Amino acid sequence: MSRIIVITSGKGGVGKTTCTANLGMALAQRGHKVAVVDADFGLRNLDLLLGLENRIVYTAVEVLAGECRLEQALVRDKRQPNLVLLPAAQNRTKDSVSPDQMKKLVNALTKVFSYILIDSPAGIEMGFQNAIAPAKEALVVTTPEISAVRDADRIVGLLEANGIRNAHLIINRIKPAMVAQDKMMSVKDVQEILAIPLIGVIPDDEKVIVSTNRGEPLVLAAEASQRGLAGQALQNIVRRLEGETVPFLDLTPPADDFLARLRRLFRPTE
């Protein structure tokens, strides 16, 4: 049976699309047939992060309008044949597609693909309703910032209200040194607020920015050093999705950062 997973958040810019591209690629690397669906009509970006923007001919809107077959709109990734992209239309609004139409599209994909990952737009309006309509599971992405966490909490409530109770949390762009200095929310802080199971913690890493700009998902890097801790964390999320028990990465800051914090604590006050 196919797994239909929506990747969502309340706040924009927290890394949903980056997670979708990398998790889709990592699942395909493990031998699964994977379709990633861009549900952000009007503001699509998933094609850019996968480096497939120049290969789009048809989009989901043309499929629904009967102007092409679903197979014609699917863009296959030449680097990983198990992965395909169903792109969103860039010149249509989110209202141009209905939740029922999204269900129809995704249900057609389940005949071929074992994983369908839906990249949800930010916010809680029609685009969000479209993205969650066909989903059976959810990955809620947030950064450890109070505004992002508050918006994610709203999303968790909406997922439950729409019958999606199998939701897991991804905390993105965490900076261990800032957490140690009490300048950033910790993983535990975020977990206590959102109260859904944690499936991944991704450290802040400039390699993510480089890979995004190149249209090359980080998990494609041949060497572990090129993937960095962020790439390893993304691969670990996929392993947990598949039921493996994988310990979370040790993101304890280096000893010199810890000692610096101690020195600040015991510095004489003026």
Automatic annotation (TrEMBL):
One of its GO terms (biological process) is negative regulation of cell division. Belongs to the ParA family. MinD subfamily. This is Septum site-determining protein MinD. ATP binds at K11, G12, G13, V14, G15, K16, T17, T18. Residues 5-218 form the CobQ/CobB/MinD/ParA nucleotide binding domain. SUPFAM superfamilies: P-loop containing nucleoside triphosphate hydrolases (SSF52540). ATPase required for the correct placement of the division site. Cell division inhibitors MinC and MinD act in concert to form an inhibitor capable of blocking formation of the polar Z ring septums. Rapidly oscillates between the poles of the cell to destabilize FtsZ filaments that have formed before they mature into polar Z rings. Keywords: ATP-binding, Cell cycle, Cell division, Nucleotide-binding, Septation. The keyword ATP-binding applies. It holds the Pfam family CbiA. The keyword Nucleotide-binding applies. One of its GO terms (molecular function) is ATP binding.
